[in-house]
Amino acid sequence: MSKAFTKETDTEEDDPESVSALPAGSKNYMTLAGYGRLRAELDELVRSERPRIVETVAWAASNGDRSENGDYIYGKKRLREIDRRIRFLIKRLESATVVDPREQQNPEQVFFGATVDYEDEDGPHTVQIVGVDEANASAGRISWISPLARALLKAREGDTVRFQSPAGLREIEGTEVRYE
């Protein structure tokens, strides 16, 4: 089949990142550090990576036959990926509500941005409650919409909370709350 008859688009329906992981009607909370990381990624893509790929594609296009030109085909594909990520980052940064955890007015209670030490049957753990776009469970950063974070919100040091995890009902005790 000729390439002219195949669908090659990068519409938002095809973009898995365009589907928001946020609950409908909720704000896109983000820590100051998380906002900075996304902003730095956007700047890197716009100022460095995209111009470099555009240059490669232009060079490959000048070589003639584009149908079997790997540099051209890969470059165009990578350019679409970069443009899709740039659109996603711009949307997320525009909709972000930036919260600086160090400015928390009630530091003895768990709110967005808190770092919480807790104990359960597996021993002690430390998590920081962060935005959806900056969550990384292996680094101890959990999304504020996760079951654990929702259970911890508004708890205080020494409180025992229960929540439904994928492994079943769990009970944990908060040992320390801090804002860094």
Work out the number of β strands: 7
> How widely separated are the two ends?
58 Å
Major sheet: arrangement of strands:
5-4-3-7-6
Low-confidence stretches: 10-16
- Report on the biggest sheet: 5 strands, mixed
Element pattern in H and E: EHHEEEEHEE
% residues in beta strands: 15-25%
Q: Can you give the mean pLDDT?
A: 86
Fraction of residues in H or I helices:
25-40%
Quick summary of this structure?
This protein has 3 helices and 7 strands.
Description:
This protein has 180 residues and is an alpha/beta fold. It has three helices and seven strands. The protein has helices spanning 32-61, 70-95, 147-152; strands at 28-31, 96-99, 115-120, 123-130, 141-143, 160-165, 168-178. The protein has a five-stranded mixed sheet with strand order 5-4-3-7-6. Strands 1-2 form a two-stranded parallel ribbon. A hairpin with a 2-residue loop joins strand 3 and strand 4 (123-130). The longest helix has 30 residues, at 32-61. It is elongated, with a radius of gyration of 22 Å.
